[in-house]
């Protein structure tokens, strides 16, 4: 796994609230000394926060947001107590880490409330993904994140602005068995958060390949990838 991929996966674990106390504290220290990691956390937290707009309205338990804000308020504050040897770049990172940290925590806390149980409240259970996939572009930057579920539906969270000509379409594939070859999970017209229903396939497994290719509309004429690969990656089990 490339350093960029590792950084993104670690940021994802932080934003989703999957780290224990020690690991979370270490991630917060990483944000203070690694501006690129801090920026990755900020981007992912904003992207996850945007998912709230795709959710159906639900009754909010009394006091939920007060509890979330109370938890955010307990975060350590940065007051310029940087180590003497800290560089100017790191000082700038530390100055801006607190708001990003709060944004990440808000996103993870909101996700925790939405996933069924948090802070003593019981809410409607949402299925959890069986694997997560960080997909890389050909130049090794992170282009998308997939959440794949037991029913083979896939939530696609683009992190790159893919240019799709009018006569083309993005097609999502998975390779669960080399003897079968790539299987299409559906198509995308634009780089927006989308959930594809997929097909009746075996439950997604760790190290399973996923990719997006650029195909002629309305999709690959052969039933297999024919166009250039936009992003690809291998599944991993969620931390926990």
List keywords for this structure.
10 strands, globular, Immunoglobulin-like, eight-stranded antiparallel sheet, alpha+beta, 240 residues, 33% helix, 2 domains, 5 helices
Q: Helix count?
A: 5
Number of strands: 10
Residues in helices, as a percent range: 25-40%
Rg measurement, Å: 19 Å
Taken from the alpha-carbon principal axes, the silhouette is globular
Largest sheet: 8 strands, antiparallel
Mean pLDDT, to the nearest integer, reads 75
For the record, the count of structural domains works out to 2
Going across the major beta sheet, what is the strand order?
7-6-9-10-3-4-5-8
Please report which band the strand proportion falls in: under 5%, 5-15%, 15-25%, 25-35%, 35-45% or over 45%: 15-25%
Explain this structure:
Residues 79-95 have a biased composition (Polar residues). The chain has 240 residues and is an alpha+beta fold. It is built from 5 helices and 10 strands, in the order H-H-H-H-H-E-E-E-E-E-E-E-E-E-E. The chain has helices at residues 3-15, 21-33, 35-50, 64-73, 88-114, and strands spanning 117-118, 121-122, 131-136, 142-148, 154-158, 168-175, 183-188, 194-196, 209-216, 229-236. An 8-stranded antiparallel β-sheet has the order 7-6-9-10-3-4-5-8, covered by helices on one side. A two-stranded antiparallel sheet has the order 1-2.
Can you describe this structure in just a few lines?
With about 240 residues, the chain is an alpha+beta fold. Helix content is about 35%, strand content about 25%.
């Amino acid at each position: 796994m490339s350093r960029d991929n590792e950084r993104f996966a670690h940021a994802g674990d932080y934003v989703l609230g999957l780290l224990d106390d020690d690991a979370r504290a270490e991630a917060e220290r990483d944000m203070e000394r690694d501006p690129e990691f801090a920026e990755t956390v900020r981007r992912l937290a904003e992207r996850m926060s945007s998912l709230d707009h795709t959710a159906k309205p639900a009754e909010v338990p009394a006091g939920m947001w007060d509890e979330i804000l109370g938890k955010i308020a307990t975060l350590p504050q940065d007051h310029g107590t940087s180590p003497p040897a800290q560089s100017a770049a790191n000082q700038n990172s530390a100055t801006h880490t607190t708001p990003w940290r709060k944004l990440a925590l808000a996103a993870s806390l909101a996700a925790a409330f939405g996933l069924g149980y948090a802070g003593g409240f019981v809410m409607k259970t949402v299925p959890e993904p069986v694997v997560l996939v960080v997909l890389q572009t050909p130049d090794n930057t992170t282009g998308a994140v997939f959440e794949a579920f037991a029913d083979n539906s896939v939530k696609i969270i683009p992190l790159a602005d893919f240019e799709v000509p009018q006569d083309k379409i993005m097609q999502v594939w998975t390779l669960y068995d080399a003897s079968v070859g790539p299987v299409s999970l559906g198509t995308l017209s634009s780089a927006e958060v989308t959930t594809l229903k997929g097909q009746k396939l075996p439950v997604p497994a760790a190290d399973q390949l996923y990719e997006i290719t650029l195909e002629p509309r309305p999709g690959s004429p052969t039933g297999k990838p024919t166009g250039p690969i936009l992003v690809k990656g291998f599944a991993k089990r969620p931390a926990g």
